[in-house]
Amino acid sequence: MAVTETRFKCLNCGHEYDGIYDSQVVQERTCPKCRSNSVRRLPKAKPDKAKK
Amino acid sequence: MMTYSEVEAVTGYVGNFNVTVRKKARYVDPNECTSCAECAEVCPVAVPDEYQQGFSSRKAIYLPFPQAVPSAYVLNMDDCLGNNPIACGKCADVCDKNCIDYDDQDKLVNIEVGVIITATGMDVYDPTEYDEYGYTRHENVITSMEFERLICAGGPTEGHFIRPSDRKTPQTIGFIQCVGSRSRDGRGNPYCSNICCMNTVKDTLLLCDHYPGIEAKVFYMDIRAFGKGFEDLYMRSKEEGVKYIRGIPGDVTEDPETRNLLLTVENTTTGKLENHELEVLVLAQGVIPRRDNDRIRKLLTLSTTSDGFIMESHPKLKPVDAPTKGIYIAGCAESPKDVKDSVTQASAAAARASILLNAGKTKIEAITSQIDADKCNFCGICAQVCPYNAIVSSDRKTKRLPVIIQAACAGCGACAAECPQDAITMRHFRDEQILAQIEAILAVEPHKHLLTFACNWCSYAGGDDAGTARLQYPTASRLIRTMCSGRVDQKFVLHAFKLGAPIVLVSGCHFSDCHYISAVHWTQKRMDKLWNKLDKLGVRPDRLRLEWISAADGQKFAKVMRELDDVIKNVTMDEIEYTMNVLAEEEAKAKEKKTKTRVEVQA
Amino acid sequence: MADELKKPGDLRIGVFVCECGLNIAGTIDCAAVSKYAETLDDVAAVVQNKYTCADPGQNEIKKAIKKYNLNRVVVASCTPKIHEPTFRECVADAGLNPYLFEMVNIREQCSWVHQNEKLLATEKAKDLVRSGVARARFLEPQTEAEVSVTKAALVIGGGVAGIQAALDLADGGHQVYLVEKEPTIGGIMAALDKTYPTMDCSI
Question: Residue C61's CB: how many other CB atoms inside 10 A?
């Protein structure tokens, strides 16, 4: 369960993209658009929200 | 010297390592064995000989190769008919010196050493993956290691180079370079294996020497002959008539009748498609990290670069030191290299190790962490965080405190930042010291300042680099230096926002440069938590920034400073005030909760 | 918060502002920074120097430590990456624990990168000095402990690199354990025929 698909968001330019996240092996993140490292792993949408 | 032995466990720290070595059962006493070979003569088992790349066979009891050291036979129990002498037992019968013992057992030996040199070597790339070359389908496609055995006077053919299908000496031979190296398509490895070009040049010269008139062709991307005397050798090979064709074959098929190999290749020098027919094809297989590298890495708390080779302390200035003190690296364990470079690095590692051995003592870091026994609740997180395994974990059941081995602690401070109880004090970079700096910086006009945490080794040095290059950037930045970005506690960042910081920047080394093996990973994890937390509190997460800046990247440092100066201007006073209030509330709540639990505990 | 954390006791901090010729003084008003430093709590002495790292500058530090009975030293000059060891040694010479010294970088990260913003650069230098003094209040003496080194080495791997390292160490008179996983040493090199660039035998 360590590897999951995650959405990343660059806090510098706002660019969003999908990527792989492995909680066991932390990877360096770089925004493919602006090269910033302020790339946030967006939390998953809550299931109750998704149901609605 | 302990052969047929493996390191099983390593504990301790610089100057005082305790190592457990497993001496595998050899079933033959190496001190008594005279290598008379009588045992092997009577052994009824024949298996492929690994040393000869399977071109010949060996017995279950064997000498790995004639010049083996120690010069003693070894019995492979997996091949032996059974350690039941009734089943066979022929070798023991003929051994005059009675040195065969079927009941031999693995032995564990403990040794105490001050330094460790890791020279665990490499493996070779298995070209099966490159299906278009047909290594598994065509008998006359061989690897460069197989070539070595076939051309060697001590090899299975006594140095008569023959092709496998009909045991005839070929008149035409081809070499394909970069098999498993410099690959961008996901197969093999992206790096250059360093040795294969010159190895092939050597092979062609051997062939020309043994078989004048042989037609040799080398298919390559680039020939990298950069070492001393290398270009001469390459030129000699060309003068001998070896054809170098710039282009990597697309596919290899076999003529079913002649068993010859047919290649199609685009010659990138002429731009033309060419066909070649060859009797033997040699794949210049690349160098890969040892497949069991992970074991040694864990034993010695080393780290590896993205390609899997063991990482050195510094790529230029400390190329043979491991990040863990007292451990050194030599040879192909560190990166692919030839014999000369391996020997050079080995001597360097020996010299570095001698410094410690000769001194007989070593100073240890003053900047280390300490456990506060009153605050610790035995959660054990610190031991998980430590990249150096310098913390002996606590035990919740027995209420045993964690122990920080001072000599093994390198002072990154990740444990102090991660400790949920604030029970770890990082000497010289204590919470109080850093909080006092934050407060001092934000005491005057906080809304104008860019509070920046910079790690000592990379991003702080990157800032210095910008200065040395006189790269101009706005004056908003106020740096706080920590040894590692892993030291930056969540509460430092929140405290800064509480005091009215518009933007907080955390900067550190790129993952591959981290001076504390993997401490920087904790920075990344913590940032994820902080971004989520800010989001929840209604604070724009993009006011907290993260940048990896290397020591040589003053350009990036200045660029980030310029960009963030614009961002500061977009943070409104209302926003800052809201943040200050919400964080102050949050802190008050946390305090209340703490006193509550304390009262409960007391009750 | 700083107040409740403040260490009790008699803090006597000395602040030394360096001009570095014109490297710092060309952009930053060093006199203004010195004057500002005097206003900070616990600061017992402020000295301005042309080159703090040179012998006369270091002597000023040593003299001031004695004269004002300083127990913390803050030098505002270049990057600690260059002169932190210099100044640590200097304060140690004057009888102070070297970890009671703090460096503030007003050159690489201030004067050199804000050459056209003299006023703002001076303000930044003041902030940095304030931060350095704040940190200095909480500095504690540290000692670098020594551990003994067992006079023996372990070499893991008996290929060409391992053999060479083991031989060198042994020739140097050290006890060496060479551990090899296979039944024989030699590694991959033993399986090679000839080796470049000299085309001689590998065994």
Answer: 24
Q: In the structure, do chain C and chain A come into contact, i.e. share 3 or more CB pairs under 8 Å?
A: no
Angle CA B224–B227–B232, to nearest 5: 85
Question: Is B67 within 8 Å of C189 when comparing Cβ atoms?
Answer: no
Q: Where are the domains of chain B?
A: 123-288, 364-428, 430-603
DSSP H stretches of helix in B475-551:
490-498, 519-537
CATH of B430-603, one of 3.40.50, 1.10.1040, 3.30.1450, 3.90.1750: 3.40.50
What are the distances in angstroms from CA A51 to CA A18, A46, A48, B535? 22, 9, 5, 22
Domains and CATH numbers, chain A: 3-42 (2.20.28)
Question: Do the chains contact at C130 and B440, CB–CB below 8 Å?
Answer: yes
Using CA atoms, how far residue C95 sits from B334, C16, C63, C135, in Å, is 44, 17, 11, 21
Give me the domains of chain C, ranges plus CATH numbers. Answer: 11-137 (3.40.50), 152-201 (no CATH)
CATH for B364-428 is 3.30.70.20
| Residue C158 scores a pLDDT above 90 | yes
Chain A CB contacts of B532 under 8 Å are 43
Of B7, B342, B350, the CB nearest to C179: B7
Residue C4 has pLDDT above 50, yes or no: no
Please check whether residue B220 is in contact with residue B244, taking contact to mean a CB–CB distance below 8 angstroms: yes
Band (B15; pLDDT cuts 50, 70, 90): very high
A·B CB contacts under 8 A: 38
Task: Name the superfamily (CATH) of residues B123-288.
Answer: FAD/NAD(P)-binding domain (3.50.50.60)
- Candidate from B289-303, B471-485, B567-581, C127-141 with smallest mean pLDDT: B289-303
> Which residues make beta-bridge pairs with B11?
B18
Closest residue to B21, CB basis, from C143, C160, C179: C179
Min distance C59 CA to chain B CA atoms (Å): 26
Residues of chain C in contact with residue B330, where contact means CB-CB under 8 angstroms, are 161-162, 164-165
pLDDT at A49: 46
Q: Is the pLDDT of residue B84 over 80?
A: no
Which residue's structure tokens are 């017995």? B59
